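Same chain as my last thread, 90 residues:
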Amino acid sequence: MCYKNIQIYQDGAQIDKIAARIRKLSKKGYKIFAIDSRMKIRVSNEKASEYEKNNEISSKLSELTRTLGRDRNPNQPNQRGGLKKRAETA
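reply #2:
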């Protein structure tokens, strides 16, 4: 489903697949992502406890927020009030 400025995906409830799609859309310029019903997100290790599953989902989404937010605005002040420095690449 695609609207003028919204894309809705209803396939792939695996957290790794969701994270990959968010990274790809972020590179295309999308800035806001909403995930409906966290309870439907699955992890690859089905034998993990509910706590471990929720921890993996939370960790992966948190990592996306940190890395994509940092990549989008490198001049954003960090928690200490200084500017984040981007590593130089050759």
